Each structure stands twice: as structure tokens, then as C-alpha cells.
Amino acid sequence: MIPRPQNTSLRLVLLGLLMAAIAVIGAEPSNTSAPAPSALVSSEAPRAMARRPMPKAEWLDPDRGAPNGTQYKTFQSKVLGREVSYLVYLPPGYEQEKQRYPVIYWLHGIGGNQCGGAMMFVPHVAAAIKEGVLPPAIVVLVNGMVKSFYCDSSDGQCPMESVIIKDLIPHVDETYRTIATRERRVIEGYSMGGYGAGHLGFKYPELFGTVVINAGALIDLSLANIPKDGPMFRVFGADNARRMAEHPRELAGKNADKLRAKTNIRIGCGSLDSLLSRNQDLHERLTQLGIKLEYEVVPDVAHNSGLYYRKLGTKVFEFHRKCLEAQGKDG
User: Environment class of residue 16 by beta-carbon count within 10 Å: exposed (0-12), middle (13-18) or buried (19+)?
Assistant: First the structure.
């Protein structure tokens, strides 16, 4: 474990720097032009992420681009009283077949948008399906409003969690031929999206049978306060008690009995990632709680979603396949 600075002021400064770094190098690319087939998992992707300005958070993304076989879609949110956008990937044969499919909800990192997963995640899903590593699945790329952390904001302006749970998931199950059970529903994300996957997956174990946390931006719970100009303050404000209660680490403890032996969990992080110690800490906490999980440290990877997924390749989807097949038999 990496030692934590004892001086509170210093730790606040370091937290601010860490979140700024995540926003710069962890955000998914906003370029939505589809690459040539041979470049779907290109080594150029990490460079495309560098030093992009933080995009404006909009419930209806004005960029209707849908790269790599995805489709731009919207749904009417009852929570918001307005339309919200997302991207969806339908597996080969969906239009011709009548079968139902499992669903993977993918959550982007801070500074990213719904197109991030189309660039970073979907090409690997498509390749894994083609290779027979992953059973055909629907992928929903969530509009995470740039920096929501997939929680409801304390000021009520960005009820991200409620929109996903109360509106998006029912919409997807009503609109597409899904297998609408927890056993065939996966939630996965990178960085802020990794936090979101843990937050939603551990808080709603009745909805998600598989939770995948990649380089989760798991903010230090020991901080008494957080920087007022930081992304977590925009979500929780000065309500530190709620900030702690909504953290994946705390939610895992609260719902340990529901997660234990019932939820498939995978945590991964790059060996050079500044968030490694936080992900290691969550791994250790789950182990202490008797919650089984798969844990992997990916060699020679810093906080870089493109390189991270490229290093994992299609092999990582063996985990998804085993989870979906096993739970499909039980469900």
C-alpha cells in the first residue's frame, strides 16, 4: 500500500491534483469518427485522450455521432421530465434473430461522454463476440454527464443515479430484446465509471449480477472534507456523511450478505496507476467481508483507458462469459 500523507492540507492538495490528472488522461476521447476496421483498437487511442478541455454536461448530447457500430438513442426520463441520450451497441444478428440478450452497462470516466465507450470498449466487445469468447450481448453506453460520479447530486441538479435506475434500465428492457434479470445484467466502468459501477452495483445488488470496476476513482474516505472546487464536492457538497455512505467500500459492507456468493465482481487497475492503492484497498475490503472476486493488476499501465483495455484484450471477457453463463443457468 502507498502511504497516505498525514497532513490534511497536503492531502487535499494531492487529491485536487489527482482528480485533475484523471480528468486529463483518464477521460475517453470525444472524437466520434469511426476508424477503419483494422484500427478499431488502435495504439493511437491513448494519444487522442491527452489534454482535452472538459466538455459541457448535457442530458441530450448534441453530438449525434455513433462510432463503431453503435446507435445514438434517447429516452424520456420521468425523473427529469425531459429526454436523455445514450448509445447502444446491438450484437451481430440482432435484427435477424428473435433471441434475447444479456446487457452490459458501460460507464465512462470523468471528462468523457457516452462516445467514450464506443471508442474504448465496444471494439473489444465486438472482437470478443466474433472470437466466441463473449456471448452476444447488448452494450448500453451511458451519458454520465461528464463528472456525475453516477450519484444523485445533493443540490438536485443532476440526479444521475435516479435517471439510470428508474428510467434508463426500464427503458432498455422495454425497448430491446434483453434478458431482464439481474443475472444477465452487467455494470462496468473505468475511472469515475469504475466508481460508478461499484456504487450502483453494490447499492442495487437486486439489479446487477456482475460488477466490473476498472481503475476505479475511489476517493479517500479518510478525508474529513474535500476541495470545494473538486468534482466530488459538486456531487455531495458539504455532506460528508452521505459522501462516505455512497462510497463502494461502505456499500459493500452494508450489503455484504446480498453480494456474497450472489454477485460476480472483478477489479482491475494498471500497475503504474496512481489509483492502484485505492483499488487494492477495495479488493482487500471485499476479501475481509468474505466476498469473492477476481482481481488483476495490469503491468506497465498508468491511468490510460485505451492502453488498459488494449492490454487486457478479449481474454478479459472470459470472466463475463463465465458469469453470464453460470448465472443464466441459475436465473
Answer: middle
Angle between helices 122-131 and 317-330 (to 10 degrees): 70
Q: C-alpha distances in angstroms, 287 versus 164, 185, 187, 252, 278?
A: 28, 23, 20, 11, 14
CA distances from 229 to 12, 219, 237, 303 (A): 11, 15, 10, 22
Radius of gyration of the chain (CA): 18
CB-CB contact of 214 with 308 (8 Å)? yes
Write down the pTM of the prediction: 0.86
Sign of CA dihedral 34, 35, 36, 41: negative
Report whether 209 contacts 263 (CB < 8 A). yes
Contact 37, 68 (CB under 8 A): no
* Run of H or E including 151: none
In the structure grid, which three cell numbers stand for residue 214, read together? 476498472
Sign of the alpha-carbon torsion through 274, 308, 260, 205: positive
**Cα distance between the two ends of the chain:** 38
Q: Could you report the per-residue pLDDT of 35-82, keeping only the tens digit for each?
A: 333 233 333 333 333 345 678 899 999 999 999 999 999 999 999 999
Mean pLDDT by 10 residues, the chain (331 residues): 48 48 44 33 35 80 94 98 98 94 97 94 96 97 97 95 98 98 98 98 98 94 76 88 95 97 96 97 98 98 96 94 76 44
Rounded CA separation 132/198 (Å): 27
DSSP notation for 268-297: EEETT-TTHHHHHHHHHHHHHTT---EEEE
DSSP code of residue 199: H
Distances (CA, A) of 244 to 6, 110, 231: 19, 19, 15
How far apart CA 130 and CA 47 sit, in angstroms, is 27
Please identify which residue in the block is written with the cell numbers 438536485.
156
Reduced to 3 states, what is the DSSP secondary structure of residue 72? strand
What is the CATH T-level fold of the domain 8-27+42-330, as seen in this structure? Rossmann fold (3.40.50)
Question: 3-state class of 279 per DSSP?
Answer: helix
